[in-house]
Design brief:
2 strands; two-stranded antiparallel sheet; single chain; alpha+beta
Length: 41
């Protein structure tokens, strides 16, 4: 998983291929999207 700031500097904050890591990443992304969608309504 990587993050990028407003100056396009990229940092690696996590790596892995374990199914548990992938599921946790997807669930976290889903929560973030839901928070942003709910904030806009």
């Amino acid at each position: 998983m990587t993050v990028k700031d407003e100056k396009n500097n990229i940092s690696v904050i996590g790596m892995g291929t374990s199914p548990d890591i992938l599921v946790a990443s997807i669930e976290t992304f889903e929560e973030g999207v839901n928070l942003l969608c709910n904030r806009g309504s």
